[in-house]
Amino acid sequence: MVFTNISMNNDNRDREVVVRKPTGVLQEATWVERNRMMQVYFPSLGQRMWLPHMLTEEGLVPVLEGGRYRDILDMACLQCEPDSEDYIRVHRTVYDRIEVEGEYDSLRSTRHFGGLVWYLVQQERIVGLVKDLVEKYLCSEGEALVELYLLCHPHCSLTSSTDSTPGKKLEAFCRHYSLGQLLAQLPTSRTLKQTQP
């Protein structure tokens, strides 16, 4: 048996949902049970009762191979709470795939790009994204990414050796990670940025 507080003045996240086990013990509902009850009593427009097949571990693979990253993330945002296991699993899987494939443009200018950047910074895997930004002459974004990385990882050996003048952090990052081919592009990209209206 499941008991749910359905009074209208409560927020869904604060609602009490308890389950009586066959032994008679009452305990707080799991996330799956809680989400199911919220969907029964307070359905969200477009949200399904069960997780769509494309968000399951088996269903995610063919959709990822099709490169439909944005569709997957949009569906995860609609179907799952941001702190649910499925939401986190789907986002991590998609972000990992984008990083491996180097397809950062698939999320650029979408609401999901910030989450991708944050995930890569937290995982200390921004080298590919920095390369992508510099190759596309987006050096100011590359500089901001390196600054965020240094703020989140003050223990990094790069932190102590980095000059705080603008443009130097990106250059120091490229030197630290042996990205010599990108160093040649840095002055050109800065010049292009300055000449654009």
Automatic annotation (TrEMBL):
TM annotation in the entry: none
Any one GO cellular component localisation term in the record: mitochondrial small ribosomal subunit
GO molecular function terms listed in the Swiss-Prot or TrEMBL record: structural constituent of ribosome
Keyword Ribosomal protein recorded: yes
Key words, A-Z: Ribonucleoprotein, Ribosomal protein
Keyword Transmembrane: no
Cross-referenced Pfam families: MRP-S22 (PF10245)
Entries under InterPro entries matching the protein: Ribosomal_mS22
Domain of life: Eukaryota
Name under which the protein is recorded: 28S ribosomal protein S22, mitochondrial
